[in-house]
Amino acid sequence: MEKDDQFSFIPYRGIHYPKAEMLQRSREFYQFMNKRRTVREFSDKPIPEEIIENILLTASTAPSGAHKQPWTFCVVTDPALKKAIREAAEKEEYENYHGRMSEEWIEDLKPFGTDWKKPFLETAPYLIVIFKKAYDLVNGEKRKNYYVSESVGLAAGFLLTAIHYAGLIALTHTPSPMNFLQEILKRPENERPFLLIPVGYPADEAEVPNIERKVLERFVVYYRGEKK
């Protein structure tokens, strides 16, 4: 790769493990991540803000198009704002469950026991609202961002992984439409709501649906060349 001399580069030193340790680490990490579940019943138990900050820093390590990092993470703990978000989300969700969503969609949601009521938006100690930046504003001028949805989606994945690693739970809530989040949080015109994620501890009596993930053979296709 030809490098432009006006930009600096630094040596990269990767992390190297013996093959046996790599296999063990990959297996253990899968087993740990396979315990991650989407939970809708939250405790209001407080969480030290430093933990949330470390989780957000982890999310910020995600790759992004041209390293533009086209995301803003809004952290909401103000009870009044959480209440406003819940009321607006429930208004949209009520419309979804009473006419917007197809019968097939509603049928597919039945195993999860969901409805238009979203009390977790007030119960969870933190709401993390991810906004994607369609473009940057630099001194009032528009600057293009690249692969915005892909970049922000990757950051959201890192965020969920870090939340689970810290021993907390999360829910990827996507009320549609989500424009109310931009209005309530007074975000600039170049930002669009992407995900609304309550974060906290599970309620003492929390339950999750008894469902299973697809086995490897159902979602992976190998294209192996001939062995030499």
What does this structure look like?
- With 228 residues, this protein is an alpha+beta fold.
- It has one domain (40-201): 3-Layer(aba) Sandwich (NADH Oxidase).
- 36% of the residues lie in helices and 15% in strands.
- It has seven helices and six strands.
- A hairpin with a 2-residue loop joins strand 3 (135-138) and strand 4.
- Helix 2 packs across helix 6 (148-165).
- The two termini are 28 Å apart.
- The mean pLDDT is 95.
CATH architecture heading: 3-Layer(aba) Sandwich
Q: Give the helix tally.
A: 7
Mean pLDDT: 95
- Secondary-structure element series: HHEHHHEEEHEHE
Q: Shape, please?
A: globular
CA radius of gyration is 21 Å
CATH topology: NADH Oxidase
- Strand residue percentage: 5-15%
Largest sheet: 4 strands, antiparallel
